[in-house]
Structures
1.
Amino acid sequence: MQNNILNYLYQTVQRVPEKTAFSDGTNALTFRQVYEASRSVGSFLCGKGFCKRPVVVFMRRSPDEVAAFLGAIAGGCFYVPVDEEMPSGRIQLILDNVKPPLVICDESTEDAARTFRLEGGEVVRYSEILRTPADEAALERVRRSTIDTDPIYIVFTSGSTGVPKGVAACHRSVIDYIEQLSEIMGFHENTVFGNQTPLYFDACLKEIGGTLKFGATTYLIPKNLFSIPVALVNYLNEHRVNTICWVVSALTMVSIFGTFDVVKPEYLHTIAFGSEVFPIKQFNIWRKALPDAVFTNLYGPTEGTGMCCYYRVDREFASGEAIPIGKPFPNREILLLTGDGKLAEAGQEGEICIRGTSVTLGYYNDPDRTSAAFVQNPLNTAYPEIIYKTGDIGRYNEAGELMFVSRKDYQIKHMGHRIELGEIETDVGLLPEVQLAACIYDAKRKKIVLYYVGDVGEKELAASLTAKLPRYMLPNKVIKLEEMPLTANKKTDRAALKKAYEGG
């Protein structure tokens, strides 16, 4: 029985030790090197007595960062990825939440890492940790004591209060995800992944898990290439990338600029997409350029361990149609629940709720928000059974395929990321020049619109936000108001803001 994701690495390193596992096109690690690095990191943690503790990995996106993740697990701990592109305030909130005994950094992040407040923790360079010889006895003790409900990572998502939520996932849910996704997508030893997503999101599990399980290879595509479409496709061809699992915005960036008139991905045969609705016009450009490729729409929240539903595109879609979410992965069930906790009827809308092994452990050090989203299955009154309420509204079409309709609350999906509009409002409201702030989302144009009342100009406010918010959370339009519209009970009237925006 598989109870530790590192078993994938242990089995694969015996088969293909010298094969490239992870590369960014310049630096690469073989499976043997990943294995040895993970054991050094694990031994270092064991020597410090850090078992079952959160270890923050604050490194640049690289093969070494992946090895550090695995090393944290080998030492019986769980990793918490952070990145330089995160605002410093957000990183500090994460550190305050998890209170790590150790922050692993590299040469490029060490100075920044040492500026943060740590409660009794220390900052250590990855290169120094690698000098630790493998402690076979200690690593074996960790391996024997590991059970499949032990956490392996905490990934932070947006929070409506301005405080990010740390989703804790365990071996069991991640193993199940890797197994089911691999079967659905057809990953194998000759798969060459082109990773697009940051490593501080759970989305990278698609490539990391598939690589470890099959002895495949993952290329961590340089971020700057996603603004140079022709160079991006040339990179895919240079490294013979045949499988990508990208957010929709990354795919449309390629198709919208006529890239395929210049160059096409020669080896690409498997394309998965998710996190947003794929505009049919752009999707059809991709399908026309790669008529023999298999396209799969994936859906799922971080709280459900990656993706939980899929739709293999098997028909033509006309302009204005939406590609279905499809059906759940094996070993999980989607409950479409109405407001009174009953199953939605045919054609009726309901909240998408996830049942099964893929449901994560909850939010780290956050019992209130955990109890609000991870709830008892209302259809089961016989024994405890936790389901996750996604906040997404869906319905089944006439073919019995699940369709995404909208968000239940102010959480949106933008540029491939789940974002709480309330988090943006909170950060903006902290600026001394701003009295009130409210966000709406223009789903048609995919724009975040920020309204505010304050003593600062629109351009000045927009410029100051670049230092406070991640790029994907920056408002696309900033509008100054003399006064904020309020409802009868003195809450911000977002409906009035949306009406004014659409009317203007």
2.
Amino acid sequence: MKNVPLPAFFPDGTRGVVRCVDSADLESVGVQGIVMNTYHLMTKPGAATVKALGGLHNFCNWHRSIVTDSGGFQVFSLLRENPSFGEIRKDGIIFRRDGKKVILSPEKCMQSQLAYGSDVLMALDYCTHPSDGYETQAKAVDTTIRWGRQSMEVFNKNARRGGSGAGMSQLFGIIQGGNEKSLRKECADALIQMGFSGFGFGGWPLDDKGNLTEDILAYTAELMPDDGIKYAMGVGRPENIVACVRMGYDLFDCVIPTREARHHRLYVFNEEFERREHIDVSRPFYRYHYILDDVHRRDARPVSTLCDCLACTRYSRAYMRHLVSIGDSLGSRLATIHNLRFYTMLMEVLREKIYKL
């Protein structure tokens, strides 16, 4: 992470791949890192397999930064909606899927991430939703602190032994507490004392209406030390990224740009932005192209005249529409390349304007 210009957006490569594109595509649009998921990689192909093949960087042929999320988010995304998939215990999380049981303890979470050779490892945490009650949030904080301490002990023990990644990887803690400021402070204070290199905002960052939980995000950013990375986990809407950069966050990840590309929704900067006139990211600064719309059927223009990605420099909107309409995989690949380039361009602008926001 030392050579990553900030702020930065890392697309999600949950299972070791950013869907529809390869490592060369990612490099071509300026992606600096990928977020992968510890839990999913434990199930397929398995930590031992990844380690035997030289770690994730070699396995995926990706030699820029890799962040491995701990798997704690699966507490929220899987168990919250499907309690039969597992349970949370004092010593870890048990997942049951397809007749198999996977145990994710702080120790196993760290050992797996160390085997992966990740650049940034995330301590195991107990993820919550902003609407969860105080009792649930307090339990999540107590659990996250306990698991954070256990994660740090395993990480430090590996470093003392000169194990895989020792001296190169960083370990981040995740601050939980929902919308309760007192709990956020309790969690942050405890984790800071443990010596984590950076911190993530834990929990779902949107309210029940889909709006960014700006007040608690800003408060949590203030609790994080200024000499480490502040990671707004799961924040991905362009306008939400801008809001969080103003708060002090400098690392982001989300499935939004790649998922929406596969659903034919392309991000394009507005006309003023394209002319580099009056660039103001505090106002609406982008729009969408729904590439299947009939208006693009005979349009010889690129998706965006500003964009320098493969899709925009070599192909027309009409051809993009044709590819998508016949279901050819090239359409999804080009759409994904374009949306990721939109995000890396946004990061470039934010780095230029960061002190003016």
3.
Amino acid sequence: MKPILSQLGELAGGPVPETVRAGIPSRIVDIVGIAVRASSMDTSRAVAGFAAEQGSAAQASAIGGGQTMAATEAAFVNGVLAHSLDYDDTHLPSILHPSASVVPASLAVAEWQGAPGKALMDAVAVGLEITVRLGLGGYDRRARQSVYFERGQHATSICGAVGSAAAAARLLGADADAIAHAMAIACSMSSGIIEANRAGGTVKRLHCGWAARAGVTAAQLAARGITGPPTAVEGRFGLFQAFLGDQADIEAVTADLRERWEAENIFYKPYPANHFTHTGIDAAIAMRSNGVGPDDIATATLEVAPPTVRTIGEPIEAKRKPETGYQAQFSGPYAVAAGLLGGEGLGVGLADFTDELACDPRRRELMARVVVVGDPRLMDIYPCQLPARLTVTTTSGHTLVEERLANRGGPDQPLSDSELAAKFADNTAGLVADGVARRTYDALSGLAAAPSVAGLLAPMVDPIGKQP
């Protein structure tokens, strides 16, 4: 049997089905909008300043960075921004976020090379597919859990570095063998731990940027003749052994390759929060639409799949008292509060995840009445969906239940074009002039007809406040 990277290299260098390609512009629109919104964050400014200090050639646009940078640095900045709001898409059941590294890496190289829109779309498509395929290699079907996650590894950045390398190498004109070498090099650059999900810190925001940067770097080095081991994934000392031990599902990586595109199972996020909270938000919104308000609730129990409790429900004291909007994004109790008290855009929006609202006394008082528990019955669905059940005991003694077993934004419940457009508009509002935002949205949506993507992101380099 051919080594995994040889098979993935052939995929990456080959044709992309039109049905797959057609969905790519919306992925790019989504990531660019998220990155624009994140450009005003302190961590984003720190990263942009760091990248600018590297003193490299001006090749590609760094959103909010104030200047063009080398493709590697632009990929880094845009990748950090893409993941900073926890608003980027998720593949299920691998539970990783593929677009936040692959799209920034692809955009940077495509802009640098002046690639046509279709070339960018195809590069993103193969990069996403390879990222999620490697993620599935770490998915334990029996335990219904990511082995990467169980071992504290961030599959998003580990697999994203390899997928980004494939996309970047394709845009640099590499053939299947050279793409395989780029991915093999990237295997030595893959990294990321998720302790920040549990204990805090902002380093997780860097992961997708570092993966995007690693992918572009690996592709550039492969183009200059650097090589990697053909068995860098499945070998005795390869990526899977290093990160997954003996728990890798090697067959899942190449099963039905080119016949079935896993990239079509990537879920958009309707809410700017950890994906484990989304069905809880939906259930709370449903409660509110039925006339239930915070003052009507004596107690509330949010039941979720057991593996997600540690992310959004433990330790419960901390989850009931998030100190920042970022911490609130990982809180089950806050998800219930946001669903009952918030409501902009797609139901709950960016305005609901601020530091001020995280500490709001009314929300804190409501969160104190919310418990988060695992329900083993939901494991029949998880992680192909991230289900939740919200049970409320009212102050009048009634019991109300809202159950949401499927996530919005996936193949079964897709977000409409108008919803995705509204998300982009919400993300760019106040940071990019309305006319510029509309033109960028139209240009990204119409990539298939673009003869070159050079300069496409130039209007996003400076936030509106810095434009002359």
4.
Amino acid sequence: MLNFAQAQYLLLLLLIPLFYILFIVAGYLRKRRIRKFGNEKMVSQLMPSYSRAKGWTRFLLFTTAFFFFVIGLSRPQIGAKLKEQEIKGVEIMIALDVSNSMLAEDYSPNRLERAKLAISRLVDKLRDDRIGMIVYAGSSFVQLPVTTDYVSAKMFLNSISTSSVPIQGTAIGDAINTALRSFSTQSEKSRAIIIITDGENHEDDPVAAARQAAEMGVRVFTIGVGSPEGKPIPMDGGLLKDKDGNIVVSRLDENVLKEIASVGNGAYVRAGNSEFGLAPIVDSIKKMDEEKFSSVVFEEYDEQFMYFFAIAAFFLIIEMLVGQRRSGKRLFK
């Protein structure tokens, strides 16, 4: 497979037709100047050493050299072989709460969008670690399997909304169990789960799920999003109300999140407006034992530009050796 690393230089090949036009125009202007001295054939007899054929030969050699020089400048490469590469890192599963309570505006613009921004910044800082994402509300599913493809991770992140999970609620325990099933490695001390939520759990027993994770060597960290005093939840142009018509206020439940982190051998961080809390947690995760991962990548292409430069130099040397005068042996007339 042939690839051009700097294909934009191929546009220079468009100059070759221009060279031909300029060469023909220059020949025409030369004939006009000759006609000013007299009959064209008579003037040509006065210049017996001039070779029109040599002029064309030198021009063709120059344009051929220019062609190969441009190809070399575009850095042609061959290769594209697959190879297996080993990297060291940890696996991080981020479980993001997408229930309606995450629309509360404790942060700008709301809890969910602020969490997505923090995750995006985290992804920008990752190198060899693997990351996966789970979204959950009343149920959970894998939004992004563990990967080192950080570009795809950010694309999947942008598509997350409160409509990603149709069943409302906050099943933190189910999210932890889904994360445990989604790791690509079973190695202990190289796996971590980060739960991002307001902590209003109504569905299951997240503490028991975190304890099970710890027994499997997986550390569980929690980030509390929201405020203890709470905020109403914007919904359909108004505020969410309960069945009695009262405005629903979503409050941060730090107690359950602290307990999850405690039994999960992790840590709890309350998200702030300036520092969301992901950075210190990830710094702690990076101190864990790293696992070796194998990944298939494209091998680097073999550069071929030097061969094209050599061909261009060859034609330039020939062009200089041809000269401009007619040879005694009349090889060029």
